[in-house]
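Hello Y.,

Per our agreement to keep a running log of every chain we model this quarter, I'm adding this entry. I've kept the format consistent with earlier entries: sequence first, then predicted structure.
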Amino acid sequence: MIARLSARIPALALAIALAMGPGGLGPTPAAADVRIKDIASFEGVRENQLVGYGLVVGLNGTGDSLRNAPFTERSIEGMLERLGVGNLTDEQMRTQNTAAVMVTAMLPPFARRGSTIDVVVSSLGDASSLRGGTLIVTPLTGADGEVYAVSQGPIAVAGFAAQGANASIVEGVPTVARIENGATVENEIDFRLAEMNSIRIALRTPDFTTAKRVEQAINAHMGGIAKTLDSGTIEVRSAAKTDIPGMLAEIEGLTVQPDSVAKVVIDARSGTIVIGADVRIAEVAVSQGGLTVIVKEEIEVSQPEPFSIGNTVVVPQTEVAVEEQEAQFSILEGDVSLQRLVDGLNAIGVTATQTISILQAIKAAGALHADLEII
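Predicted structure for the entry above:
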């Protein structure tokens, strides 16, 4: 592919030469400084998942069919008994305006009693739509089994469904809905931040270089109070009577330059390729080509002559052709960034599927100095 890039594909040679610049390698773009709050979180300051089981009522005939969702029927019976309506038989329970749902929510840190949170309502049975329904009182519990919030209210569905005798249309997901501020916090999670002697900063992407830079940034601004424990944790100790919330506000506003490992992420289904800035390849020769097999089927019918004895026979006619794509080697100089390689391949019209195959082959040859992740 080069002459050292073959003359057959000058576009690739030009793209790589321009990208490399007169010195052989173009300048590496400087990484931007980011706030600590954007790459890390404070240990213990996090959300908690809540879940509950409830009923949505008021549906216009789009609820669960009680025969296919017996748990909905039992839930209706239990609810009505608690409300003083009992002695119902299965023959009397024929409602189609009720649906069993799972209710989920995230309890934010430091949520206080009386504050409200959003909830997501998802159908559990065979209801076709939750549009127009109202969620009745549903306790939301945490992983410890304690009730932390109670949800109730009219739900909002983004999708819709409509059908006739011979056609139907569905837009979005009408069996999932939201209730903005639909749950009220009834129980608080005890977390006494002001009484802590130290707090730990947890990096969202563990990396020793980034952790050390966070430690240095904190110590340069506030003295020697930070210490790196591992690739994802930095411990910050506070003096007596220190304003912990104020100290955390200062720390999360400090900026550092995060580091990361070189990685190539490939989504083979959509042909998406994401390449890190530090990805490099060794000197390697690449050849891309293959076979194209074309199969063409035609159906012919053979019929006997009039007034003759015979049967009508279907005779398939198959044509097979093989086309071989001409392939030539390309020598890629060492320490060329993978981004330049992809730009050069795009310049000569190599498809995303072919590019993915080339990257996988370069990795198998040991010339790709990066992690190759296929999702």
